[in-house]
Write a structure and sequence with these properties.
6-stranded mixed β-sheet; Rossmann fold; alpha/beta; 10 helices
């Protein structure tokens, strides 16, 4: 039975090579993928597997060595600044460190106003813009009247990450790339952030692509999971198929490495701690 879902982002033979000759590093090695509208996808791998490099290629922040990216069925064209900005209206990101995502000279009002302007609301009355900013902040359980005239660095890490989601609420992109969005915040805030992202997906039909090393997160939030090792996708499929019925040795090892509270932990590979060492 043919799949009736619409592909929103796909790649064919996507490759990224850094350096030359003996110094050459193949960070992403001829990967193929298809992400569908409204789908939640997780790309899972250890540090150095190439997943963040792939995310930057999908965002258009770094170029490709080989292969093509297709957006809504057409070959992506970001050859000019105008075309790049148009592409970025449809694909946005939330990064691991929220602090580094903000311009330290821009107040929160300016951060949110940029989003409204980017969506064509530059000529809206000031009162309407204020209403939209307040609504976006309310969506992420922040009070705009308490944020106005402040800088992002005056907020906690969890609040900064929620402000990033408020940006996404205003921009309403078709695709969101979330690169380890909860790894630098506490467990309580982590659950809240994930819940807000899922709610946003449901409200605007957005595709979410998680870039993560957390295979537990991937299982609980994803429709599809891609396992990445040394620049290649070594396994992919539905979350149940990949996590509950893994085929590849690398996938099985990632799952086995997750500590389980009901099993005795194997610490034989951990070096003993030496006092004063």
């Amino acid at each position: 039975m043919p799949d009736k879902r619409k592909v929103c982002l796909s790649g064919s033979g996507l490759t990224k090579v850094f350096g030359f000759g003996r110094q050459k590093t193949v960070a992403v090695d001829h990967v193929d993928f298809s992400f569908y509208e409204g789908e939640v996808v997780s790309i899972v791998g250890e540090s150095g597997s190439g997943k963040t490099t792939l995310a930057k290629m999908l965002l258009g922040l770094i170029g490709t060595t080989e292969g093509e990216v297709y957006f809504q069925g057409k070959k992506r064209d970001i050859s000019t600044q105008k075309k790049r900005l148009e592409y970025w209206r449809n694909i946005q990101a939330i990064f691991q460190d929220p602090f580094s995502s903000y311009n330290i000279f821009h107040k929160i009002d300016a951060v949110l106003l940029d989003c409204i302007n980017m969506r064509g609301g530059r000529k809206l009355p000031h009162a309407k813009k204020a209403e939209m900013m307040a609504h976006a902040c309310s969506f992420v359980n922040l009070k705009f009247e308490e944020l106005t005239n402040k800088y992002p660095f005056e907020l906690s890490g969890g609040q900064q990450q929620r402000l990033m989601i408020a940006r996404i609420f205003l921009l309403k992109p078709k695709i969101l790339l979330a690169d380890e969005p909860t790894s630098m915040i506490d467990a309580c805030s982590r659950a809240t952030i994930l819940d807000m992202l899922m709610q946003l997906r449901d409200e605007i039909g957005m595709t979410i692509i998680f870039i993560t090393h957390d295979i537990g997160l991937a299982y609980y939030v994803s429709d599809s999971v891609y396992i990445m090792e040394r620049g290649r996708f070594v396994e992919h499929g539905s979350a149940d198929d990949v996590i509950l019925r893994p085929k590849g040795a690398y996938t099985k090892r990632l799952i086995d490495d997750v500590p389980k509270i009901y099993e005795e932990w194997d610490l034989s590979t951990v070096l003993p701690y030496k006092h004063g060492g």
